[in-house]
Amino acid sequence: MIAPNLKIKTKLPLFVAILSVFPILLLSFIIMEVNTTSAMKNYQMIISNQAESSAKYISDFYNTQKNALIYSSNLSVYKKYLHSLNGTDSALNSSLFNDIIKLQQTAISTDNRINNIFLTDADGKIVACPDKTKLGISLEHSKAYKDAKEKRMDTFQIIDENDKKEILIAYPVIDDDGSVIGSIFRLISIDEIDKHVNSSKIGSNGYIYILDQNYNVLSCNSNINITPFLESEQSKKIFKNIKKDALSYKSYFFEYNLEDTKTLASYHLIAGCSWIVVVAIPHSEINHSSFFINNIIILAATITGIVSLVLSLLFVKGITNPLESLIDNIDAVANGNLYCNYTYEGNDEFAQVYKAIKVMSNKLDISYKKLEESAKTDILTGLPNRTAIYDIMDKNINCTNQAAMLLDLDGFKNVNDSYGHDFGDAVLVSVANILKSFQDKHIYQARLGGDEFLIFISHFDKPDMVECLGQKIFEEISNIKTAIGKPISISVSIGIAFSDENDFDKQNLIKKADLAMYKVKRNGKSGVLVFNDTLKNE
């Protein structure tokens, strides 16, 4: 080290005079190399994040339908109806058939992704369906039917009719003795998946597609020919491992040639099934971005070297002192101290920088506070959102004298469809204001989303108090008669669940309240019900 005891004010002029050009050029070449590597890593991260994000989105889409199908297969009415087909009681058969049609119609009306629902007997013949023209049609040769008999849910069957692509999934109805007595099918639109895929922008020339392990393309946001990829050794190895459940990683990077272009790709296995998301981008686009920046670096390094050689010796002393102080203040901001005493005597650029840092720190402080508040507040109603109420429950759920109350407005979708979203928003605000009127130190209200609200009671003396609270809320919401000057009739289904001394888990508490609420829905809506263990089996 040269003159270690000299201060930077003394050493800097000497160092700059000797090394002003060479270090800058050397550093520029290092930066260019790092930039090239970083560009590759950056695009790897971009396509990996996109693959992971799309995989999660599709997993949620698929598992929602799968879980709903499994839930439906366990409903007793399906088993009773399938058994009644072999009996002579036509009245019972007709009653059960009508009940099933109502269930199917309700599912279709509440989920616009469902195009149709079928119930088949053990031989694959459709015995219940809202579309009566489908009754009697046999599905025994369909892939979904064969998967259902084997109790598999990890594949799908593409139904492509009238340029409308759908997926058909099924699950068996299993009798008490373990035998398969029928199957429930769902014909699901993939428009939602297509919209997600088509809205995913990967650079200028990147693309994304979704496949199953049999090379079927579910969705793709490009007309590019992906056959070369499907025929590549990497592709065959990936699908071979998926079929054997032998993947070492849920996601990975690989390269292949597509239309004579070297391509970087990342795949991600979709949880709950054997589909994969593949996100790819040509190397040419990655290289183009780094090449442009490298040219800028070379130009900047050349100019900087010349200028610094001429001017650094003249201005070094006027720079180092304020620079040292400026670094101290920037470090303070970086360490979270937004209230530093920024002082600088002078009227030059450093004074402007000091002033800008002070303004920046004040704005950052305000932004942090706003972000922290908005991240946990529902913008429409002003109530805490799902994240906020879950945090509250995590911090407070610890004893038996606690309860959760789940509220769902009845027929709210029809209100939106009939009167418009502004009218629906006004109704939600009215409901929120009613909930706010009951707030105290032990009662926390939140909007979970849509027309669903949650109340967490962190402490109560008697269960009757909670039930009374639920009844009061039910009555006040039922008394909402106008919104934006228009008459309206509103009802609400409320489920109440009390904490268990052996299980202080918020998810279980909310699930119990949810079961109670949906029991109210099934019983005709508009009411209050406390959870009991019999609801678990319904």
Automatic annotation (TrEMBL):
Residues 400-533 form the GGDEF domain. It is found in: Cell membrane. The chain crosses the membrane at residues 12-32, 264-281, 293-316. The keyword Plastid does not apply. GO terms for biological process: signal transduction. Residues 317-369 form the HAMP domain. Pfam families: dCache_1 (PF02743), GGDEF (PF00990), HAMP (PF00672). It comes from the Bacteria. The keyword Nuclease does not apply. GO terms for cellular component: plasma membrane. It is a multi-pass membrane protein. Keywords: Cell membrane, Membrane, Transmembrane, Transmembrane helix. InterPro entries: dCache_1 (IPR033479), DGC-Regulatory_Protein (IPR052163), GGDEF_dom (IPR000160), HAMP_dom (IPR003660), Nucleotide_cyclase (IPR029787), Rev_trsase/Diguanyl_cyclase (IPR043128), Sensor-like_sf (IPR029151). PANTHER family: DIGUANYLATE CYCLASE DGCT-RELATED (PTHR46663), GGDEF DOMAIN-CONTAINING PROTEIN (PTHR46663:SF2). This is Diguanylate cyclase (GGDEF) domain protein. The lineage of its organism: Bacteria, Bacillati, Bacillota, Clostridia, Eubacteriales.
